[in-house]
Amino acid sequence: MTTKADDVFKKLISHCKEYGFIFQSSEIYDGLSAVYDYGQTGSELKKNIMDYWWKSMVQFHENIVGIDAAIFMHPTVWKASGHVDAFNDPLIDNKDSKKRYRADVLIEEYIEKLEQKIEKEVEKAQKRFGDSFDKKMFLETNPRVVKNREKIEEINSRFVKSLEAEDFQDVKALIEELGIVCAVSGSRNWTDVRKFNLMFNTQMGSLSEGASMVYLRPETAQGIFVNYLNVQKTGRMKLPFGIAQIGKAFRNEIIARQFIFRMREFEQMEMQFFIKPGHEKEWYDYWKEKRMKWHTALGIPAGKFRFHDHEKLAHYANAATDIEFNFPFGFKELEGIHSRTDYDLGAHQKFSGKKLQFFDPVANESFVPYVVETSIGLDRMFLAVITHAYNEEKLDDGSERTVMNIPPVLAPVKIAVLPLVKKDGLSEKAREIFDELKYDFMCQYDEKDAIGRRYRRQDAIGTPYCITVDYDTFEDNTVTIRERDSMQQDRIPIEKITGIVKKRIEVRP
Ligand code: ATP
After folding, report:
1. Could you tell me if 232 and 179 lie in one domain?
2. What's residue 2's pLDDT?
3. Is the CB–ligand 1 distance for residue 383 below 6 Å?
4. With CB atoms counted within 10 Å of each terminal CB, which end of the chain scores lower, N or C?
5. Which of 245, 260, 214 is nearest to 84 (CA)?
């Protein structure tokens, strides 16, 4: 992370606290690591992200329905899904600092540094050669670039092979050979790499009744798979169809840092799309495109997103890609799109002894459907939105403002209603307008302090529209509407506010 990006990130975190977006959990007890609470502004933004997702998935697709499964599930679910045996991270400790790391992350960060070196070479050459610069040729022929590229490929293939074979000795050997040091102690004094299961567990029932161990779900997807037949039959669903769900998931992450990027309690928005085997490639491509459009339709620049296709596939997938977002600490996974074959339904069929199939009346055959899933972290989406939104601006008059350019459809408060001054009946008129608008939009009424300061407060929480009531309002029933990003002010009739704002905050991805 560059120091500038680091600085901006720190400012964003304190802005989130100051304006009621995000608080540390149990802060008065010094907090609980990697657990966060959403405040009065943040919970609105989070709810709006959920709504935007739910509408795009469920309301806008005739063949996708939503469910809300319980967090606790039968323990055999996690045996069948592979999580009991395979939901592990490779753990490594530095003996001097006692700091704990994920071995795979240490190696990925090393690779990222090599990638950055290549990028720097390209930038330098671009400056030197100007318009005549041929990037493709440079990447193929520059000896330093070629050497680093070869090194990346060599590390990648060895690392993927040893992780897949769970050859942890070799993972440790690789960390030592690359000379990776602990960021805190600076030493190479590493423990062996060990397997660490990320699932939390607890007891269900009192001990006297013979309690059994249950897990807090590490993903919402399994709640959908075990309900596949319930939904298919009761909803009379035909392939292809999808089941969507938003809900909490829990992972005992080894390293939980970077604010709400990696939490131990978080929320997922997942959709499993059930299809006929053999059609997975076309649906995988369809959902890749559709999901990217969902992001860019918000007006966040397309350059902030990129696909990252997986080389190392999870135990359940035959194709997988991440939609990565350019967070202040670099491009990182925001959403996963996975072609999961019939792995999950097949496994549940085996472990439960119940048939989880679809009968195709045209072909007169039954089969276990294949699945393409889209899985996005709600909190990570929140972080992507606020990262994009947070801006410090220098204005023409020399003053500064901090503004959250949150896409209007997601903004916690859509309209602030402000009387110019608190006298001569302006407050009463403004309240009257507020009391009408509140049935259509989340609104705030504010009459405290000078109008300029009130505008700044609304900028800081990302309110896209401020409505100001002044003396002219009594003359001609008009108000001023101020747009957050351009700060442009227009005069409009009171009865047009709802229509204008509704139109401007609508998104159709
Ligand atoms: P990562 O590689 O970052 O650990 P993952 O590949 O394990 O993520 P998935 O299992 O595919 O993630 O989960 C789907 C989505 O859930 C991710 O794209 C991410 O947005 C979100 N997510 C996963 N783990 C966390 C976490 N600890 N905190 C917040 N969001 C998370």
Report:
1. no
2. 53
3. no
4. N
5. 214
